[in-house]
Write a structure and sequence with these properties.
globular, mainly alpha, Na+/H+ antiporter like fold, about 300 residues, single chain
Length: about 300
């Protein structure tokens, strides 16, 4: 396996374990991070956006048919389908799964697409496009499908998301434009810092809800884990065949973008706007299949690309 992705996965898994462990074992200290979850998420967006070259995005946006198809499916249709299926098969997972399905593409998608044999510039385009649309689409999805589960207004959630996404993105572009000599030396530290902030975010969420989460046994956690694993497998398959007329590299990219969504944003929304700790629990355990599935998918795509 590529050393870069191997290091990323090991670091990601380690950060996840330490974050959950810190929140459970030191809840009082971890809870002090809870008021800063929005700031931490904004910092993750800022760091991710530092490496974005808008020119690459504009080139990919010329393929209007593919971009519109993927964005509409990712931000609307998959959330609607997930709601319908979970209501039918597993109502207990409806809120968590719809939140995941409504999330924009994760900012790590270009790296994951590169390693899986996809097109990083396409992954970057979808990550930026879906993230900038997310403040509009996520409150709408939640209002339409999960309105009974959350009391916050559409406008309040929009403002919160816009603050977390738009401001860091604009600041990052300004920094990249006018302080480029400063960005170069810190580029290698962007991924480790993003992982650190993600770990602190998860720790704060766990610490804030540790009493409620402590009531969950392995018998409750296991179905959540298996449910998320099944959901991500479905997303992999659907993503690969969504743009069936495109090249294999494009289809691999779409599969990665759909499956490895921005679940840190989902965790934040669950902790801020939903009272049920089971929702947060399901999203936190998503770390495990996230880490396990990627190497398997990479092996499959490498074989597929060379047959």
């Amino acid at each position: 396996m590529n050393t870069r992705i191997q290091l990323f996965l090991v670091s990601y898994a380690l950060i996840g374990v330490l974050a959950v462990g810190g929140g459970v074992l030191l809840p009082a200290a971890a809870a002090t991070l809870a008021p800063y979850t929005a700031l931490l998420l904004g910092m993750i967006f800022f760091l991710s956006a530092l490496s974005i070259d808008v020119r690459h995005i504009l080139v990919c946006l010329r393929d209007v048919k593919m971009v519109v198809t993927v964005v509409v499916c990712m931000l609307f249709l998959f959330a609607a389908a997930t709601f319908a299926l979970t209501q039918w098969l597993a109502p207990a997972f409806t809120v968590a799964f719809v939140l995941l399905a409504a999330m924009p593409v994760g900012m790590t998608a270009p790296l994951l697409a590169t390693i899986s044999g996809g097109r990083p510039e396409l992954a970057l385009t979808l990550a930026v496009t879906t993230s900038l649309l997310a403040p509009f689409t996520i409150p709408l999805i939640i209002y339409v499908f999960l309105g009974a589960e959350v009391s916050v207004s559409f406008w309040s959630m929009f403002v919160d998301l816009a603050t977390i996404i738009f401001i860091p993105f604009v600041l990052a572009q300004l920094v990249s434009r006018f302080l480029q000599p400063v960005i170069g030396p810190i580029t290698p530290a962007i991924t480790p810092l993003s992982l650190l902030f993600l770990g602190l975010l998860i720790t704060g969420v766990i610490g804030q809800q540790v009493l409620a989460l402590a009531g969950f046994s392995l018998a409750v956690i296991t179905p959540s884990l298996l449910g998320v694993l099944a959901l991500l497998l479905v997303f992999h398959l659907v993503g690969f065949w969504l743009v069936f007329w495109r090249t294999v590299a494009d289809r691999v990219t779409i599969s990665v973008c759909l499956t490895y969504m921005n679940f840190s944003l989902a965790i934040y929304l669950a902790s801020e706007f939903f009272a049920d700790p089971a929702v947060t629990l399901t999203l936190v355990v998503a770390i495990i299949p996230w880490v396990l599935l990627l190497p398997v998918f990479r092996l499959l795509t490498i074989r597929f690309l060379h047959t």
